TrEMBL record:
SUPFAM superfamilies found in the cross-reference section: DNA breaking-rejoining enzymes
Source species: Micromonospora qiuiae
Keywords in alphabetical order: DNA recombination, DNA-binding
Annotated Pfam families: Phage_integrase
Family: Belongs to the 'phage' integrase family.
PANTHER family found in the cross-reference section: INTEGRASE_RECOMBINASE PROTEIN MJ0367-RELATED, PHAGE INTEGRASE-RELATED
Region of interest (Disordered), residue spans: 336-355
Protein name: Tyr recombinase domain-containing protein
Gene3D superfamilies membership: 1.10.150.130, Intergrase catalytic core
Length: 355
């Protein structure tokens, strides 16, 4: 037994001198047998494996990574090098009115690196403990400057959207869709004709993080969407619902042009960088004040549990309550809400949205 203990002690001493842990002996052989790709070789594979939304957010950062480290193997960069690259991108960010010191650019660069290394861990190219991006802290996120738009200013936005531009019908439809549903741009652009349920006045929203839900809409918006599809759509019920006059599917650029045009007519919109997400804030703020936090949370399509207590599991609002909030918002009857939902104790805000 003493001889065996002496041998073990000798082995431990040797491993310590070589800087090798017992765990490495179990994994190093497998890892070493796998050819480690370069960033140029691997980023394209990762891009094909993620969702279109993730690819859109991280795409420009992956290009920057390949520009700097394309020929390097993904196991080469250290946490310090990743941090230096993030700081370099942060300092190069274009300065705009709503710039926040490049924090978002640095955060997205680190997140893009983490995405690469998560897949590398899954592929057995590196060990979880050797993930360099996981050791780099993201910049602390500042509080959002977005807020609910006051009623008078919202009326100005709606007026400009529906009376100017080359397609006021389309722009008015977009504004109404986002005010009624508080959906994100990605959710609107992902809509298909098959996502409409005209009998129950619902649309099926598919948004970021793979979340999806049936969202109540007013009978008026239902008819507008059906008419829009009849005029501009085709027979493909899996194609895009929202389209330009020539039948091409809508893209994010339409939103960019819309808010740029509104900003040229309303200087305060340009100065504060008002965007579609402000409409989401506006609607959800009203729903929370007029109904409850649980209803606002369901209205927004939030389903995570990181920021709330366990109680939310038992008091979450159902689609019928969301429909009642919509009826209170628009002043219109909804088939899933009670008969008195549109005459809620709080005054309806139908003047937000014009038919």
């Amino acid at each position: 037994m003493d001889h065996r203990n002496a041998q073990l002690e000798t082995l431990r001493s040797l491993l310590k001198q070589l800087g090798i842990t017992p765990e490495q002996l179990l994994t190093e052989t497998t890892a070493a047998s796998v050819a480690v790709p370069t960033f140029e070789e691997y980023v394209g594979q990762v891009a094909e494996a993620v969702s279109p939304g993730t690819r859109r957010v991280y795409g420009s950062y992956w290009r920057r990574i390949c520009h700097h480290w394309g020929k390097r193997r993904i196991t080469e960069p250290t946490p310090l090098e990743i941090k230096r690259l993030a700081e370099g991108i942060r300092s190069d960010v274009v300065v705009r009115r709503n710039t926040r010191g490049g924090r978002t650019a640095a955060e997205h660069l680190i997140a893009a690196m983490r995405c690469i290394y998560r897949h590398a861990v899954m592929d057995g190219l590196i060990r979880e403990a050797d993930n360099p991006a996981a050791k780099v802290a993201k910049p602390r996120r500042l509080a959002s400057i977005r807020r609910a738009v006051p009623e008078a200013q919202l009326a100005e936005i709606i007026h400009i959207a529906t009376t100017t531009g080359n397609d006021p019908h389309l722009d008015g439809l977009l504004i109404r869709l986002h005010l009624e549903t508080a959906c994100r741009r990605g959710g609107a652009l992902a809509l298909r004709p098959r996502d409409l349920d005209p009998d129950q006045c619902l649309i099926y929203l598919r948004e970021k993080g793979g979340t999806s839900r049936w969202q109540p809409i007013s009978p008026t918006l239902t008819q507008h969407l059906l008419a829009h599809h009849a005029q501009r759509g085709d027979d493909d019920r899996n194609g895009s619902l929202l389209r330009y006059r020539n039948g091409r599917p809508l893209t994010y650029r339409r939103y960019d042009h819309l808010w740029h045009r509104i900003g040229t007519h309303l200087p305060w919109v340009a100065a504060q960088q008002v965007s579609t997400h402000w409409l989401r804030h506006t609607t959800l703020t009203w729903v929370e004040r007029a109904f409850s936090y649980a209803v606002a949370r369901a209205y927004a399509g939030h389903s995570g549990t990181n920021d709330i207590g366990t109680t939310m599991t038992y008091v979450r609002a159902e689609v019928q309550e969301v429909a009642a909030a919509l009826a209170g918002l628009t002043g219109e009857w909804h088939p899933l809400a009670g008969p008195d939902a549109s005459t809620h104790d709080h005054p309806p805000r139908a003047d937000w949205i014009r038919s």
